[in-house]
Amino acid sequence: MSIYNDIERVLVSQDEIAAICERLGKQITADYQGKERPILLGLLKGCVPFMSDLSKHIDLPIEIEYMDVSSYHGNITSSGDVKIRKDMNTSVMDRDILIAEDIVDTGKTLDTIVKLLRHRGAKSVEVVTLLDKPAGRVIPFTPKYIGTVVPKEFVVGYGLDYNELYRNIPYVGVLKPEIYKK
Ligand SMILES: O=P(O)(O)OC[C@H]1O[C@H](OP(=O)(O)OP(=O)(O)O)[C@H](O)[C@@H]1O
Ligand code: HPA
Ligand SMILES: [Mg+2]
């Protein structure tokens, strides 16, 4: 039994992910020069591997914060109800916030969180996402920094889960449909 047997095909390889993290890290380092302690805000749980690798390529005095946000609750479709399970530990008032995400799909999570942080008085709010699935959008949302675009298929690995599994796969792959149709 191997978790890798449940993967239909690799979509974004480990080498591609490493190149994306380096490229985006350099771009962010250039764009945020001179800003006062920007906050890299990860949305748990999916952000963890990407945020960890990306942050090593950001050569700036950033603070790191997390917010635990969920709307899929183990399913392959969004419940539409974006729940904050744990809020961040610091005030965002007058701060530059860069949200780190694994994927933008329907856009509901980011739409909700970006609006919330603006409402709380953040100076700027931008999003860096490893994956963008524009064909999944229900609410218009355009992330500033995008690793790569994926088709409208359910993907797992590198932080992304199905029913809380597969987050520990080191690449992004398409899950065999028979796994979630069981
Ligand atoms: O654009 P959307 O359709 O809102 O989807 C994107 C969000 O969905 C996933 O989170 P999930 O709710 O599965 O929580 P998790 O990160 O704990 O898996 C993913 O990590 C994003 O946060
Ligand atoms: O394709 C996906 N896979 C895993 N989690 C997700 N959350 C939104 N879209 C996805
Ligand atoms: Mg999930």
From TrEMBL:
<comment type="pathway">
    <text>Purine metabolism; GMP biosynthesis via salvage pathway; GMP from guanine: step 1/1.</text>
</comment>
<keyword id="KW-0479">Metal-binding</keyword>
<keyword id="KW-0660">Purine salvage</keyword>
<keyword id="KW-0547">Nucleotide-binding</keyword>
<feature type="domain" description="Phosphoribosyltransferase">
    <location>
        <begin position="14"/>
        <end position="162"/>
    </location>
</feature>
<dbReference type="Pfam" id="PF00156">
    <property type="entry name" value="Pribosyltran"/>
</dbReference>
<comment type="similarity">
    <text>Belongs to the purine/pyrimidine phosphoribosyltransferase family.</text>
</comment>
<dbReference type="InterPro" id="IPR029057">
    <property type="entry name" value="PRTase-like"/>
</dbReference>
<keyword id="KW-0328">Glycosyltransferase</keyword>
<keyword id="KW-0963">Cytoplasm</keyword>
<dbReference type="GO" id="GO:0016757">
    <property type="term" value="F:glycosyltransferase activity"/>
</dbReference>
<keyword id="KW-0808">Transferase</keyword>
<dbReference type="InterPro" id="IPR050408">
    <property type="entry name" value="HGPRT"/>
</dbReference>
<comment type="pathway">
    <text>Purine metabolism; IMP biosynthesis via salvage pathway; IMP from hypoxanthine: step 1/1.</text>
</comment>
<dbReference type="InterPro" id="IPR005904">
    <property type="entry name" value="Hxn_phspho_trans"/>
</dbReference>
<protein>
    <recommendedName>
        <fullName>Hypoxanthine phosphoribosyltransferase</fullName>
        <ecNumber>2.4.2.8</ecNumber>
    </recommendedName>
</protein>
<keyword id="KW-0460">Magnesium</keyword>
<dbReference type="InterPro" id="IPR000836">
    <property type="entry name" value="PRTase_dom"/>
</dbReference>
